[in-house]
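Dear colleagues,

For the upcoming journal club I promised to circulate an example of a predicted protein-ligand complex. I picked one with adenosine-5'-triphosphate because it came up in last month's discussion. The inputs are reproduced below in full, followed by the predicted structure.
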Amino acid sequence: MTESVLTFSNIATGYGSKKILEDISLNVKRGEILTLVGPNGCGKSTLLKAAARQLPLMAGEIMLFGRKLDDFSQKEMAKQAALLPQSRSIPGIPVEQLVLHGRFPYLGLSRRPGKEDKEKVAEAMELAGVADMRHRDLRSLSGGERQKAYLAMVIAQDTDLIFLDEPTTYLDIGKQFEILELIRRLNRESKTIVMVLHDLAHALTYSHRIAVMEKGRLLAVQQPEELFQSGLLNDVFGVEGHWAAEEKTYYFTPHHK
Ligand SMILES: Nc1ncnc2c1ncn2[C@@H]1O[C@H](COP(=O)(O)OP(=O)(O)OP(=O)(O)O)[C@@H](O)[C@H]1O
C-alpha cells in the first residue's frame, strides 16, 4: 500500500471566484479506503469534485496514476475514476439503463453494449442488491433503493479508483452496514476508495486512513486508532468519542462541559 494513485499538491479550488479549499496536499495510496470527514460545509464534496475533474483548480496540481488530471481525455478519465456524487438528477429510466451508463466509456461508436458490458451490468446490480428491481423506473424507487442503483452504476464503471460522496445517506442502519461491507469487499477486490462519511464510528471502522477537514483546510490524515486517540475528532465536532472494547465499537456522545 505505498504507491500513490492520486496526489493533490497544494490545491485551491472553489466556485466562480469564491475559494473554498486552500492549500490541500494529500496522497491517496493504491488499495486503501481513505475517508474524508469534517463539519458541514467544510469542503469534502468540493474536494471529491476537484479530484473527479468537475471543478477547475485555482492553484496547485492533481496527479492521477502519475499523470496530470488535465492530460486525460474524458473517456480515459472515466475508465480510471468513478464518482458517486452527493446530489444527482433522477431521470425517468429503468434501473438497468442507469447502471448501463457506467459502461459508456467502454462502448464503441454504435453505443451498443457487448457481452462483457451486459455481464458487468448484471454483476454490479447483483452486488448492489438492485437486480430484482432492474426494470423499475428510478423515479418510483425509495431514496435508499435509488442510492443503491447509483452505486451499481459506479461499480459497473469498473474503475480502479472510486469516489463516493456519502454513500450511506438515505439508507436505514441495516442497509448502511450492507453498503459499507460492499465497499470493503470492493476494496479487497483491489479498488481504491475515497469517500465522504458523516458517521464517525463508521469512518473509524471502515477506513484505512481518515482525512479530517475544517473550513476548507486539511487538518490531519491519520489511521483510525491513532486519530481517535489524538482527540482531534472531539475538538473538530464538539463531541466525546468512546470505545466500547467488548463490542469493538466506537460511539460518540455530546460534549459535556
Ligand atoms: N455549486 C456551488 N456554488 C457555490 N458555492 C458552493 C457550491 N457548492 C458548494 N458550495 C459551497 O462550498 C462550501 C463547501 O461545500 P461542500 O459541499 O464541499 O461541503 P461539504 O463538506 O461536503 O458539506 P456537507 O457535509 O454539508 O455535505 C460550502 O460553503 C458551500 O456552500
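Two points we might discuss: The chain is about 35% helix and 30% strand. The longest helix spans residues 173-188.

See you all on Thursday,
B. R.
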